[in-house]
Structures are given as C-alpha cells and as structure tokens.
Amino acid sequence: MAMTMHIDIVSAEESIHSGTASFIIARATGGEVGIYPRHLPMLVQLQAGEVTVRDEFDNEQFYYVSGGTMEVQPHVVTILADAAVRAKDIDEAAAEDARRRAEEALANRTSEVDYARAQAELIEAAAQLRTIQKLRKNARS
Amino acid sequence: MSGAKEIRTQIKSVNNTQKITTAMEMVAASKMRGAQQRMRQAQPYAEKMRQVIGHLAQANPDYSHPFLQRGDGNASSDGKSGAVGYIIISSDRGLCGGLNNNLFRGVLRELMAHRKAGEEARLCTVGSKAIQFFSRLSAPIIGEVSQLGDTPRLQDLIGTIRVMMDQFEAGEISRVLLCYNRFVNTMTQAPTMEQLLPLPPSDEPELVERGHTWDYIYEPSAEEALSLLLERYLESLVYQAVVENIACEQAARMVAMKSASDNAGKLIDELNLAYNKARQAAITTELSEIVAGAEAV
C-alpha cells in the first residue's frame, strides 16, 4: 500500500478539505512544490493557484487557494488558506475605506443617530409611564 | 357596546404583534443554528495557527515580533504609553434584548477608567449599533464597518483590522482590546473584552516543555512567515468574534421574541376578560332596560 499523509485545507471561514493523500502539489511563492509523505517539516508561503491532492488510489482533486501558508509535517500537511484575494495595496484600500466610512458616519450623525436617541428616549418614557400606571393601580386596590 | 368594540380592535392588533414576534423567534432560532455552525467551522483555522505560531516563536526566540508580547508580560516597559484601541463588535439590528447595551456599558466603564488614567482611546466599530452609540462620545472612531449580514466575509473586516494594526505598528496605540459578546449558551451571552495586541503569551504547557528541538524549512524566511501568520491569526480572531457575536445576536433575539410572544399572550387573555365583562355589562343593561320598560307598560 502506498504511503499516505493527512491533509487539511482550512480557511478562516470554513474547512475546505480533509483527507488522506499520497502526493500534494502546491504553488509556493518561489515556484511549485511537490510533497510526498515523510517530508521534512517545512513552512511555505503559497501564492494564488491550484493545490493538487492525489490520494492513494491515484484520484486527483484540485482546490483553488488565493494564497496562504502551508505547514508540512512528516505525516500531516495543513494548508492555512486565505479567505480572500490579498495584496498589500488591496489591504490598504480596505483600510482607507473603513476610515472613510467612520468619518462619513460621524459627519451625518444627525439623521440616524438622532433617530436612535429619540427611540431610546421614547423607550424610557414608555417604561416610566408603565411604572406610574402600575403604582396607580396598586394605590387604587 | 362602544367599549367592547375598542377592546376587540386592540385584541386584534395585539394578535398581529404576537404573530410577528413568533415568526421572528422562529427565524432567529434557525439563523442561530447557522451562526453556530459557522462558529465551529472557523475554529480549526485558529487552532492550527496557534500551534504553528507557538512553535515558531519557540524555535526562533531571538526574533521578536512587535505583535508578540514578551514572556515577562511587560508591554509598557519600553516607555510606550500610547492610546488604547478598541475594536467593538455589535449587531446591525435591534430587537435583541440588552445584548448591545450590556456590551456598550462595559466598554464605557472601561473607557472612563482609561480617561481617568490619562490614556486616550481610539475606536473601531463593527455593526451599525456600535457606531450609533459611540459617535455620541468624544473618543475618535478611526474605522467602521457595518451591514455585514448573516454570513460575514473576512474580506469585509480586513480594512477595519488593518487600521488598528497600522496604528499599533506606528506606535500610536500601545494595545488593542477586542470587545464582543461571547456565546455561552442560548440563554447566556457574556460581554467580553480581550486583549488582541500585543498577543498575550500562550500558556500551553506542551509547547514549552517539549524536549527535542526541530525547526521548519522556511520559504522564503522565518521572519516573513511569522509576521504573515500573526497578521492572519489576528484577523481570524476578529472574524471569529464577529461570527460569535452574530450567534449571540440571534440567540438574544430569540429569547427576547419569545418573552414578547408570551407577554402578548398574557395581554390577549386580559383583554379577552375585559371584553367579555364589557359585553356582559352591555347585555345586563339592555335586559334591565327592557324589564323596566315592560313594567312601565
């Protein structure tokens, strides 16, 4: 029987694949790497591309990862896949977006926030009213 | 009969409200199951990362990353006493009991304590309830994201996390706290504040006491691998907090809607009693009028 190793492909959002494999190909930042069982421990950064998992019956399965890190142990391989396409400038743009949204929300706080405040006051008034009514009822009986 | 008619319309409207709250309760229950599922799915990633980072930090003790707290646990020893960053996670919608308010109250208390100690605060908010609440305060909000829906994507959170990490790396923020509701069970949600940055040292004994030493082959380098992993790890922690908060939101909404339905039921019973009394009173009056009329004839 062919030697096998365990492979897990997980992302922050879900577990993508879990099973046994006899051979794995992944695309590292420096080029493609092939992993057989009993490989030395290795930590590889992956770039966007395909991961090929061949099981002991020579069936191949393909997974697309948009980057991430592959941890290789002699009998366990774990691919920590990124949940999204990542690049430094995309991240920066996202950060800029978050900043802008905060400023916008602060700028037009009048509409929604005033509404929220009015709602809070209304709830408070209703609660007070209820208490008064209850007190009255008790006083009457 | 005017009183009876008014009561009847009131009963009808309460009935409609009860129908809505019951429907919302059931929707929340099914959404909660989905959110719990996502919570579980996100766990293996963070667990695996913790293992790898633990090993990395142990194998390369000479390389220290700014995100990692040193073993002595003294983050402020290097004279840095910048502001405190908060990432506050809330729901987008209301009608979920005191879920958001309990969390906000805890955060406010903390904020006041920091203000007394002379520390500044920077806020990042997730969810529209948090931005509505905290925009009234004077503390600056430096990042915001809302309308994530029931299935949040990590992609939507990156920006908000990045803002905090940038400021931390620039030394403007000395530590970052993550504030969210932890899902204990359906009835209990615990408002939680955890230190996100610098990462508290892991206290897993088996990592420290392992006798034999071995190291990875790195590609391209250990430093890069470590900083990339740490970044992803932080993101996964925040993502998990967001997913957990959603599970909490649905659970809290389910409980709130259940009690609302129960209250509506009680109200209907009371109103029914009042209605019957009013109807009976009307009949009695009518009868006595007829009898009086017959006697007069």
Description of the structure:
The complex is a heterodimer of chains A (141) and B (297). With 141 residues, chain A is of the alpha+beta class. Chain A has two domains: 5-87, Sandwich (ATP Synthase, domain 1), CATH 2.60.15; 90-140. Chain A is built from two helices and nine strands; from the N terminus they run βββββββββαα. Chain A has helices spanning 88-107, 109-140; strands at 5-11, 15-21, 23-28, 31-35, 42-46, 49-54, 60-65, 68-72, 76-81. In chain A, a hairpin with a 3-residue loop joins strand 1 (5-11) and strand 2 (15-21). The radius of gyration of chain A is 28 Å and the shape is elongated. Chain B is of the alpha/beta class. Chain B has two domains: 2-21 and 257-296, Helix Hairpins (Orthogonal Bundle); 38-253, 3-Layer(aba) Sandwich (Pyruvate Kinase, Chain: A, domain 1), CATH 3.40.1380.10. Chain B contains six helices and six strands; from the N terminus they run αβαβαβαββαβα. In chain B, strands 3-2-1-4-5 form a five-stranded mixed beta sheet, sandwiched between helices. In chain B, a hairpin with a 5-residue loop joins strand 4 (173-183) and strand 5. In chain B, helix 1 runs antiparallel to helix 6 (222-296) and helix 4 (154-169) crosses helix 6 (222-296). Chain B is elongated and about 115 Å long. Chain B starts with a helix and ends with a helix. At the A-B interface, strand 1, strand 5, strand 8, helix 1 and helix 2 of A face helix 1, helix 3, strand 3, helix 4 and strand 6 of B. Strand 5 of chain A pairs parallel with strand 6 of chain B.
